[in-house]
Design brief:
Number of strands: 12
Largest sheet: 5 strands, parallel
CATH superfamily of the largest domain: HUPs
Strand order of the largest sheet: 5-4-3-6-7
Number of helices: 16
Order of helices and strands: EEHEHEHHEHEHEHHHEHEHHEHEHEHH
Bound molecules: cytidine-5'-triphosphate, cytidine-5'-monophosphate
Helix content: 25-40%
Oligomer: single chain
Structural class: alpha/beta
Length: 399
Amino acid sequence: MLILYGLAAADLIVVIKVETSGKVNKYFHIIVSVIVMSGDEKKKHVRVWVDGCFDMVHFGHANALRQAKQMGDVLVVGVHSDAEISKHKGPPVFTEDERYKMVRAIKWVDEVVESAPYVTTIETLDEHGCEYCVHGDDITTTADGVDTYHLVKAAGRYKECNRTLGISTTDLVGRMLLVTRSHHERDESKSPDPLYIQSIGQDNQGRSPYTGTSLCLPTTKRIAQFSSGREPNPGDKIVYVAGAFDLFHIGHLDFLEKARKLGDYLIVGIHSDPVVNVYKGSNYPIMNLHERVLSVLTNRHVSEVVIGAPYSVSSELMDHFKVDLVCHGQTTICPCPLGLDPYHEPRRRGKFILIDSENNVTTESIVSRIINHRLEYETRNKKKEAKEINIAEGKVNSH
Ligand code: CTP
Ligand code: C5P
């Protein structure tokens, strides 16, 4: 059999692949690789380094990684170990294995370096072939108050991206502890003071310009930046899943990874705040619809999201998106208000399956974990904010 490879590159070549023996086949593949590589070498691959704790990773972290990726070609993310974080700012809420996995799932990340040192050194950048280090425009210090980036700054190998306003771990923890539903509220006049909500999670006196937050103001531009923008290809198998996806976590990751493997294009329907509140109760969802949309969009397996998806997977929805398969995990399926099964239509069409994420983390278990660690979290945050206030007042050690 004769196959022609036409390569649309500056050095256009045509290679004839003759499928005779495995040896000959291999020989031609090597020629193709060498020629393609020499074309690519003309464009230098800039490797960019970002490091951090990535505890309770959220779309603010992901947005920093998105910006860093735009500053080069390959994004390498160093994640600190539990021991290193405990030493410098107190124990993290999530284990290092959970944090490594969460960062790997963010679609702009190419490589993860585990147990990265807290102070970024030139040796670390060189070891991983990175030209420079990128960090948000806030300040991170060691336990002794030293700027963790002083070495790379002095060497001119440091760049900044914009920290994402309107999202912080502190604010999310405040919402969990306060058991309020005010974050669902779109009418500002009815919302309690956001500073009050944050203060519940941080128990502090002064206000750091970094740890605090304003309200999340999602724009269509931000959604476009996070979207893949890819349409399904003809013949793609389309998989649909729906849910709250609140406090986007490692259970969601495992579920989405399995769902994506069942097809070629994964659509995630995200229920609105009032719908989630009906079936989860209390102050759920902790993150509002816009925040949950941005979180899900950062996941590498997700092709598209439906913002405010209907609870019942209707015939119209399945036809509109040409859905081939609908999946749900092992969590309880709450019936619709009239007692109907929300998956009645996909089941009737023989297009519904239950999948096992083999992960029992839920939004509720994360909230319990935070509540159980409240004291540790508050102490850690108090220390962090006191350091940041010192820095803002010009009392930082630059080495
Ligand atoms: N980051 C950001 N916007 C946010 C939160 C974090 O741009 N809203 C950036 C930080 O500036 C940093 C990266 O995400 O470049 C990793 O952050 P990390 O070390 O986890 O720090 P914080 O989230 O700021 O720290 P903490 O967990 O103590 O709140
Ligand atoms: O609970 P929520 O609506 O956010 O869940 C969204 C989807 O993720 C559901 O199909 C649920 O069963 C699945 N999931 C899972 N494993 C977990 C958590 C959620 O399969 N640990």
